[in-house]
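Working notes for the structural subgroup meeting. M.R. asked for a predicted model of this chain before we commit to crystallization trials. I am recording the input and output together here so anyone reviewing the notebook later can reproduce the run.

Input as submitted:
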Amino acid sequence: MQEPPTPATSPDPTTGRSPQSPAATATQSPAATPSDPVTAASQESAATASEEASVRPGRAATARAHHPTAREPSTTPAPTTAPEPSGSAPEPPVTDLSDLAPAAWPVRAAAAWPALPLLVALALWVYATRHTDVSALDDFGLVSALHPTFWAGLAVLTAGFWFTVRDRRRPGAWSLAYVLVLLVMERATQALLYTTPLYAWAWKHDAVIDHLLTSGGLQGADRLGDMAVYDQWPGFFAAQAALVRLLGVDNAAMYMAWWPLVSSVLLLLPLLLIYRTFTEDRRLIWTAVWLFCVGNWVGQDYFSPQSVAFALHLGVLAVVLRRYGRSGGPHGRQGQAVWTVLLSVLVTAIVVSHQLTPGMLVVTLVALALTRRYRDWVPAVTTVVIFLAWCLTAALPFLSAAMPDMIRSIGDIGANVETGYGTTPTGTGAVATSWAARLLSGSVLLLALAGVVRQRVLRHRALPLLLIAAAPLPMFAASSYGSEMIFRVLMFMLPGAAFFAAAALLPKVRTLAADAAARDTAPPSPATRARPRRVPLPALPRPRYGVWVPLLVLLAGTLAFVPSYSGKDRVNYFPPREVALVQQLFDQAPDDSLVVAANRNYPLAYEQYWRVDHYWFLDDDRRHVDEIVRDPATVLARDMAAVEPPARAYFLLTRGQTANSEMNGQLDRAQLDRIRESVASSPAFELVAENDGGVLYVLTPAS
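Returned structure, recorded in token form:
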């Protein structure tokens, strides 16, 4: 057998190339004997490269697009060498297509794909707000009135957030954007749909601010009666009065409809600082923030002192967790005096603004001080001293009157957690939305328990967050807080519970302490010193249990927030006609007049409370309520007859009072209609105003 032709010269052992000219190389026959291992390997390599090119045509096309002069792979292996000078042999052919940079536009598209669900969700939300009619709310509140595209937008937003936050390569800015859009959809929808602010209590707080602006100072119980309690905790109201003056608006009602969104955004910074104290795992941090936002349905984010006090509460915890822990070195204790001053300012702002939040803060700080890591009593002692100083001075008049009832309620857990008359959901819509709220909170707490069991490292490394979740529980034994203690306890448990609930939805999580221990013990590997490879395009998630089941849980919680938070908007929303009717009352009522209503659920209920008295007969003893139902006009006229001229006695019954009475188990519509008809037919009352928002009568002087 004849030997095939061989090159005239042997290849250079350093470059693997023959010194032949390019033309000679191009016309040279690739044949080789089977016994030649080098040539056989070259043939096998060429075949493999050909197969890879056929399997990955896109990458091959990319290679040709980036290297238009590249030739087919050579049959002779050629190690990489430095570029040759101009006029020499061309560069060797590319044999490893994975080393090529991907096209620029796919990389940019892959980096920006989280923007697509965000934009779609926002577009659906805008469409929903423009096509939702809230003129006739039923017992399901905003839930049944919302356009279906709102629910689709929430689903798209939740799915986009989940697949974005699970990708470690995504910067945290994308997760922040998703959370902000979630808060906008949750909290700003009502501000856009309703033409007047929600919640009778928000209108009440606006009246307190108006009093401060009118009187120019604080007043005692001899002047204000029960409303003097707000003058004994004036921090929030004084700050809002200053803001009204600064903005140049007539009153706080001009902006308080947007307060739920503002107060919710204020919680993000301290919440992130708290979570970042224990982990740098962005998946865990942002999933916990998301669960906190959807689990915070209690409704204390409206225009109220507790909305700001809760944000300050989280700020104090962030300072304590980050600056008062034992870090193991002297540098962790530097600047302690500065942080103590900051802590004192935050605690003082809480103490002068709200009654309950300082107590919650004290029990939480004491629980942290009992641990080895945070065995520093400065925060707890500072809070207790400031709290007691305020209680024994400015707040003493209120506490002196309320102390006997407070002492009797200590330890009576059953009475403190029961709802009682007037706070029991009644009707299909009220019961359904109430159960949605209970299931949402119960699910978050069960997920938190699962996270504690499943993520063993968190039980030790994030123990302070577990204490923050459990510390408010003893407050059940302290007071009923007007049948609201159970809701406040849930709210103060949520920051810690959301963290562990997020851990239950994620695979193995990392903590700062565990990462530091791993860095200290593990030797550096050559891979860590190597040049990082370019990140390939992200692949679509596979349908695995660990991906889709947590997504469904997250989606269910996000959707359940809407009925939990907005399911009672029939009670909380006051149409403009109802507001105009009540405003007409206070525009004409003389000083020392009396307003009699079924309950306090109407706008401007506390308007000008320093000169006009109020009486809500459904708050009275049940026997007296039954007496009014039996003979409404006679009993009401008797109750109102003590008002002396020139003061007048008014009877007010509005749409909001009827909705609140029906949905909270007081009087049904038929009973309230009977009261209204009895007053209308009685000669003792004279009609003052009437519209679709309610009726207003005045007791005649002869009566």
